[in-house]
């Protein structure tokens, strides 16, 4: 009876960790990203192409296309403990970019759920070539 109690208790304690692994844990909502940027000075890395970045990006984001991320990221963010918010148009490339960043030693790299599209849908501001040309 005691062994069953120990196994059940252990299962109850481990269940949240097991569920969180498969649920997209570590992916940021736009609101979570804003908090991370404001509270922990997270750096936003846009992994879209230069043309996509020029067309529209989150204010203050740095551009490092996914294919060039392993070479560019260490120059853009020297402190590997700095939180990173990785962004692409719809979020798919950002998820791959987070994996690349983690392999490079950036433990706090997280993709933005639904990418720039989700950011816009949340009513958050973006910069574009038209805005940059004016000011």
Detailed description of the structure:
By secondary structure, the chain is α/β, with parallel strands linked by helices. The protein has one domain: Oxidized Rhodanese, domain 1. 53% of the residues lie in helices and 13% in strands. The protein has helices spanning 2-22, 30-40, 50-55, 69-76, 92-103, 115-121, 129-134, and strands at 43-46, 57-58, 62-63, 84-87, 109-111, 126-127. The strands form two sheets. The chain has a four-stranded parallel sheet with strand order 3-1-4-5, sandwiched between helices. Strands 2-6 form a two-stranded antiparallel ribbon. Helix 5 (92-103) links the parallel strand 4 (84-87) and strand 5 (109-111). The longest helix has 21 residues, at 2-22. It is elongated and about 70 Å long. 29% of the residues are buried.
Which residue ranges are poorly predicted, with pLDDT under 50 across at least 5 consecutive positions? 17-25, 131-135
CATH superfamily heading: Rhodanese-like domain
Helix content estimate: 40-55%
Specify the oligomeric state: single chain
Arithmetic mean pLDDT:
86
Q: Overall 3D geometry?
A: elongated
The name of the CATH topology is: Oxidized Rhodanese, domain 1
Broad structural category: alpha/beta
C-alpha end-to-end distance: 72 Å
Counted by DSSP, the helix tally is: 7
Side-by-side strand order of the widest sheet: 3-1-4-5
Radius of gyration: 18 Å
Beta-strand percentage range: 5-15%
> Biggest β-sheet, characterized?
4 strands, parallel
Q: How many domains make up the coordinates?
A: 1
The appropriate CATH architecture is 3-Layer(aba) Sandwich
Find the count of extended strands (DSSP E, 2+ residues): 6
Order of helices and strands: HHEHEEHEHEHEH
CATH class: Alpha Beta
């Amino acid at each position: 009876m005691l062994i069953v109690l120990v196994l059940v208790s252990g299962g109850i304690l481990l269940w949240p960790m097991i569920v969180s692994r498969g649920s997209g844990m570590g992916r940021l909502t736009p609101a979570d990203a804003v908090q991370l940027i404001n509270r922990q000075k997270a750096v936003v890395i846009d992994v879209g192409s230069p043309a996509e970045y020029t067309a529209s990006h989150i204010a203050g984001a740095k551009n490092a296309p996914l294919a060039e991320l392993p070479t560019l990221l260490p120059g853009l963010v020297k402190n590997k403990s700095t939180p990173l918010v990785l962004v692409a148009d719809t979020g798919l490339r950002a998820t791959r970019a987070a994996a690349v960043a983690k392999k490079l030693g950036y433990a706090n790299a997280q993709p933005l759920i639904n990418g720039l599209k989700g950011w816009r849908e949340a009513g958050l501001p973006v910069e574009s070539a038209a805005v940059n040309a004016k000011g």
